[in-house]
Amino acid sequence: MTLNRHHRYRSNPAMRDLLAEVSISASDLIQPIFVSESLTQKRAIESLPEIYQWSLNDVLDEVREIVDLGIKAVILFGIPEHKDAFGSEAENETGIVQQTIKKIKAKYPNLIVIADCCLCEYTDHGHCGIMKNNTLDNDGTLSRLERIACSYAKAGADIIAPSGMMDGMVAAIRDGLDADGYHTVSIMSYAVKYASSFYGPFRDAAGSAGEFKGDRKHHQMNPSVRNEAFLEAESDVEEGADFLMVKPGVHYLDIIRDLKNTYHLPIVSYHVSGEYAMLKAAAKAGILDEKHALTETLLCLKRAGSDLIVTYAAKQFLSK
Ligand code: PBG
Question: How far apart are CA 85 and CA 186, in angstroms?
Answer without folding.
Answer: 28
